[in-house]
TrEMBL record:
Pfam families: Kelch_KLHDC2_KLHL20_DRC7, TRM5-TYW2_MTfase, TYW2_N_2. Gene3D superfamilies: Kelch-type beta propeller, Met-10+ protein-like domains, Vaccinia Virus protein VP39. PROSITE patterns: SAM_MT_TRM5_TYW2. Its EC number is 2.5.1.114. CDD domains: AdoMet_MTases. This is tRNA(Phe) (4-demethylwyosine(37)-C(7)) aminocarboxypropyltransferase. Residues 485-744 form the SAM-dependent methyltransferase TRM5/TYW2-type domain. It comes from Phaseolus vulgaris (Kidney bean). The keyword S-adenosyl-L-methionine applies.
């Protein structure tokens, strides 16, 4: 069904036999084909929530499948506060389904809902604790009275944070863990087995395509193993389920954009071999007196390829012996156990630099507290997490036993500080080094908390949250807070998708100064849609401040303009730099869409063009262009031709013509050909095209220029010298520049 296929098939997998079969349902009702939904099994019923059927058709419906009758039913939910979304995450707690985040076109949600499957009632959970930022394509799972959430995408980057929600307290907590954290990712899956939380797969594939990350929920310690034989195409948007002691992996694609192109065969991994491999490995090592140093584990998994996949497990397991699976809190000695709220690691001053680097590398250093010296600077004390206390003490027990002849100390590098390559140190070696350098764990009796600077986003969120609570407005408005913004001169420009609800207008007088102060902005504005006029006027709205005129310096070029009347694109910076890098000293350039001087000024200031004809019909842009030519001291090498370029552009003068208009500059292609000298020259043709149709678009540009040249009586050889992919304009729509060379034959 092609890329991003939407289906409403119902499949049943037997995890023991490996049989996968289509299930026929009773009745005519069934969910519309969709993707990005969630499916949650509560008792004998599966609840399907949300998703999308098309680029603009986002759903909020809830369907229930009675698995005993194989019949679908669309639920009529009371108090339906749940807004349409897809790529959200759901977790089951008893008869309740908890849903966080998701995506609806440009809106990314941070709201948290619970759906009661008994009463069919939606309830929004109020903000409390370390509330996670808005995200989509994340993953959630429930364990005991907690819901864990990892990763996702916030619209700007992949996330690698881990949160837990205490259902009884109704509060979020950002988890602090030790060990190597999993890579930031989205479109992954997570699961819980016994005392471990697992994270598998996700985007970007290249970083962790075959890695399974496991978090010991008691020690909050990460470990990692590699699934060597499982195909990489299983790991993006796959589904994981724990059946007994097996992890069953179903579906997925090789990358986000390939999802739906093929259905990967199911796979099964025995989790007991992973979790208990440490004890088995240590037992074998003790018998053979042979030391194995290996930082990562490897799991072999054989999958048969057939129409009805058969699942087999080959338990070939090797684990890092330093990974701890002891459920009890380690003791400092045989008689006593240290119990404290804060710990420090004490090292001699000469070992402090290496010790600090090791603690930072493995996430053991508590950045919320300050290091301090003791005994007149003889010792340096580093604040460490409680989880490190447990791991370090366990390691000390092991090394003490080794010194008594029970084991060999698994360390092969010389203990000289200047000979270490930090990146090559394994988890086990790092702990051994700290031990050999005389590091000891102590209770932190100083506990000097470090004042961590809050991010502007956090400051804004807290301030706006306080305001809307004071005004009695719903917390769902917080979903419209921006997670990113642009800075133009001293103006902070909020995206068009922020603060859209009309309820914001009722508190605008108090809201905008708070937002401006939070973002440390002298002036605040919100982006508007490009005016549907031929001059493409800006509709930027000033929220704090009086004037829209800004000064902006970019790549050594000075721009000044009224942002409320003229457009300015940050995404074209790479193309402006490319034009500036050209050698145009002896060239005459015609810019058919000059604007405020986006490309005119780089041609003159940086590329040293001999002369530029600047065509522009927006009077506000012309005013700014005149000012900018003077400000950059290049007015003597440019003439502004105000009006429609099809009328005002010169003929037969240009060595180079710039057609910097999107989505299409096609109406001026004839004008561009006529502007070139009879000997020919270079055309920089801008346009938007679907990524799947890029080659066809490039061929059409070249053919059209060739046809126009012939019709104008030119005998030219037309060739495409370069294709510059400037930016993504929209999903699957790319801004492309084609350099077309016209040579006289």
């Amino acid at each position: 069904m092609g890329r991003h296929a939407r289906r409403n098939d119902l499949l049943l997998l037997d995890p023991y036999s490996g049989n996968l079969e289509m299930v026929s349902t009773v009745g005519c009702a069934s969910p519309t084909p969709r993707l990005g939904h969630t499916a949650s099994l509560v008792g004998n019923c599966m609840f399907v929530i949300g998703g999308r059927t098309g680029p603009d058709k986002i759903l909020s419906d809830v369907w229930i499948l009675d698995t005993t009758m194989n019949s679908w039913k669309l639920l009529q939910c009371s108090d339906n506060l749940f807004l349409p979304r897809h790529r959200h995450a759901a977790a089951i707690m008893g008869s309740d389904i908890y849903v966080f985040g998701g995506l609806d076109n440009d809106t990314i949600f941070s709201s948290f809902y619970v759906f009661d499957t008994n009463t069919l009632h939606w309830k929004e959970i109020p903000v409390s604790g370390d509330w996670p930022c808005a995200r989509h394509s994340h993953a959630m799972v429930a364990s005991d009275s907690q819901i864990f959430m990892f990763g996702g995408y916030n619209g700007g980057k992949a996330l690698g944070d881990l949160y837990s929600f205490d259902v009884q307290k109704g509060q979020w907590t950002k988890e602090r863990t030790t060990g190597r954290n999993p890579h930031a990712r989205f479109s992954h899956s997570i699961f819980v087995h016994k005392n471990y939380l697992g994270v598998l797969g996700g985007c970007p594939v290249r970083q962790h395509c075959e890695e399974l990350a496991l978090l010991d929920l008691k020690l909050r310690l990460w470990k990692h193993v590699t699934l060597n034989s499982v195909g990489k195409d299983l790991f993006v948007r796959s589904t994981t389920n724990v059946v007994g002691d097996d992890l069953v992996i179903v579906g997925g694609g090789a990358s986000c954009y390939a999802f739906g192109t093929k259905f990967s065969e199911p796979a099964k991994v025995n989790l007991l071999h992973i979790i208990h491999s440490h004890d088995e490995h240590m037992s074998v090592k003790n018998q053979s007196k042979h030391v194995i140093n290996q930082d990562e584990g490897t799991i072999g998994n054989n999958i048969k390829n057939s129409c009805q996949p058969q699942l087999e497990l080959g338990p070939n397991v090797f684990e890092d012996e330093s990974l701890c699976f002891n459920d009890n809190l380690p003791c400092l000695n045989d008689q006593s156990q240290m119990i404290a709220s804060h710990y420090i690691l004490q090292l001699k001053k000469k070992y402090a630099k290496l010790g600090k680097d090791i603690l930072k590398k493995f996430g053991w250093l508590d950045l919320g507290r300050k290091a301090h010296s003791e005994e007149g600077g003889v010792h340096i004390c580093f604040p460490v997490h409680q989880e490190f206390f447990a791991v370090f003490c366990e390691r000390n027990h092991h090394l003490r036993d080794a010194s008594n002849g029970k084991n060999e100390v698994p360390f092969s590098k010389p203990l000289k500080q200047d000979e270490y390559l930090l990146n090559e140190l394994s988890y086990s070696e790092a702990l051994t080094i700290l031990h050999e350098y005389g590091a000891i764990i102590l209770e932190d009796k100083v506990v000097e908390e470090r004042k961590t600077a809050k991010s502007p986003l956090k400051v804004m969120t807290e301030a706006v949250t306080s305001l809307i609570k004071h005004k009695g407005l719903p917390t769902r408005l917080l979903e419209e807070l921006p997670t990113r913004w642009d800075r133009l001169g001293d103006i902070i420009i909020l995206p068009i998708s922020s603060f859209k609800d009309s309820m914001w207008d009722s508190i605008a007088g108090e809201l905008w100064p708070i937002v401006a102060k939070s973002l440390k902005a002298h002036r605040l504005a919100r982006q508007g849609p490009v005016a549907a006029t031929g001059t493409r006027d800006s509709t930027l709205q000033i929220l704090v401040g009086d004037s829209g005129w800004v000064n902006h310096r970019e790549n050594g070029v000075f721009y000044s303009f009224d942002a409320t009347k003229c457009m300015f694109s940050w995404g074209n910076l790479s193309e402006k730099i490319r034009m500036a890098s050209l050698d145009c000293k002896e060239e005459v350039v015609v810019d058919l869409f000059a604007g405020i001087g986006y490309f005119v000024l780089p041609f003159l200031v940086r590329a040293q063009a001999k002369f530029v004809y600047a065509c522009e019909w927006n009077p506000h842009a012309v005013e700014a262009l005149r000012h900018n030519l003077q400000a950059n001291s290049v007015a003597d090498r440019c003439i502004i031709l105000e009006g429609d370029n099809r009328i005002t552009a010169p003929r037969g003068v240009a060595d180079r013509v710039c057609l910097g208009l999107i989505p299409s500059s096609e109406l001026s292609w004839i004008t561009a050909v006529r502007a070139l000298r009879r000997e020919g020259g270079m055309l920089h043709v801008h346009g938007n095209t679907k990524d799947s149709e890029e080659s066809e678009w490039i061929d059409r540009v070249a053919k059209s220029i060739n046809d126009i040249a012939r019709s104008e009586g030119y005998c030219w050889e037309i060739s495409v010298e370069h294709v510059e992919r400037v930016k993504w304009y929209a999903p699957h729509i790319r801004h492309v520049v084609v350099d077309v060379r016209c040579r006289q034959i």
